[in-house]
Design a protein that fits this description.
Length: 349
């Protein structure tokens, strides 16, 4: 692995100078977070927390993470399409979890009515840490999964910008070796996400239909969301993105006889959730009614209720149980690649 400059080797003056340069760079490139204020007229921003230097990761582990993303995406798509898997593995554990229990109720209701939209579109992010097994007496690192995110997956916009920030920082510190700078991996997830959303929009079949970005009332991650929004619109100028809250949907959306969703009389092709993932996102019944309305519609949900539930921690624990992966995935090599990233997960039941 490459050897990079260390922060403790910098003089106080060097550290102060580079920190200010990083702050300015973040401000100029959209690595910002809105400051939540009581005054709606206050549009103050501060930079996202970033590391001063890039993190060194073995190339083989980076390659591994990229390779198994397809395995995980396939697995969670299978789970979302399996009518019985989620209820069978969640009903008991959700007896004391009112939030997830309500999600499961909606899941069951829309299945009983009949799924209006067969397209399952999920933007996912798999989070990892590097694990060092000290009991083996060596520094061998391995990739271990923290969680698999299926709803309100953020940071595609900011993650696409970060490699350029780290190249800039190293150059400012005098680290101008071309080979080292090229080793900072580029990240094209923003472009990939935008192309995927454009494809889903086309598959819906109406080039006049809009895409809803469902956000929180007090939204702080505006810049990351906007970067994604702009990338989607750049992918096809015909796409119209509308930002709204769950309460806005309840107040302004209707369902046609054919289960077409309309928002302020505009047909909705996709409902993309950057909210709706936690109990605090549902302060009233309005939000629950909005979720059910969207889920019953023929709009493509990102994600739908099945993919949302597939991402809960209980399912992560269930998947680590011997034999479960094998029952879902026919490819043994895929099972082995996924299981290699698991850590000890235990049921509290």
């Amino acid at each position: 692995m490459a050897t990079l400059p260390k922060v403790d080797e910098l003089t106080p003056d060097q550290l102060s100078t580079i920190v200010q340069k990083i702050r300015d760079w973040c401000s100029c490139h959209g690595l910002l977070m809105k400051a939540i204020r009581n005054d709606d007229r206050d549009h103050s921003y501060h930079h996202l927390p970033v590391t001063l230097l890039p993190t060194v990761i073995p190339q083989k582990l980076l390659d591994q993470a990229m390779q198994i993303q397809t395995d995980f995406n396939t697995l969670f798509d299978i789970i979302a399409r399996n009518r019985n898997f989620l209820p069978e593995n969640l009903e008991r554990s959700l007896q004391d979890d009112e939030f997830s229990s309500k999600l499961l109720d909606i899941y069951n209701q829309v299945h009983e009515e009949g799924i209006a939209q067969p397209i399952n579109f999920m933007l996912s992010r798999s989070d990892y840490m590097l694990d060092s097994n000290q009991s083996l007496g060596n520094n061998q690192l391995s990739l271990k999964q923290i969680e698999f995110n299926t709803i309100s997956v953020g940071c595609a916009g900011t993650a696409s910008v970060l490699p350029s920030l780290h190249r800039y920082t190293l150059q400012e510190l005098g680290w101008t070796d071309k080979h080292t700078l090229e080793r900072i991996a580029s990240n094209n997830c923003l472009e990939s996400y935008a192309k995927a959303m454009q494809l889903a929009w086309k598959l819906y079949g109406n080039d006049k239909a809009i895409i809803l970005f469902v956000i929180s009332k007090e939204e702080y991650n505006t810049c990351d969301q906007r970067l994604f929004e702009y990338a989607v619109m750049d992918s096809d100028p015909s796409i119209n993105v509308v930002r709204c809250t769950m309460a806005d949907i309840e107040e302004n959306a209707t369902l046609g006889d054919d289960k077409t969703l309309y928002y302020k009389k505009q047909e909705v092709a996709l409902v993309y959730y950057r909210s709706a993932y936690a109990p605090y996102c549902y302060p009233s019944q309005k939000e629950w009614d909005a979720l059910l309305l969207a889920e019953r519609s023929r709009s493509i949900k990102v994600p739908n209720i099945a993919s949302h539930l597939a991402g809960v921690k209980k399912i992560q624990q269930v998947l680590s149980t011997p034999g479960v992966l094998e029952s879902l995935l026919p490819d043994k090599s895929s099972v082995e690649r996924i299981r290699a990233t698991f850590v000890g997960l235990y049921s509290l039941e």
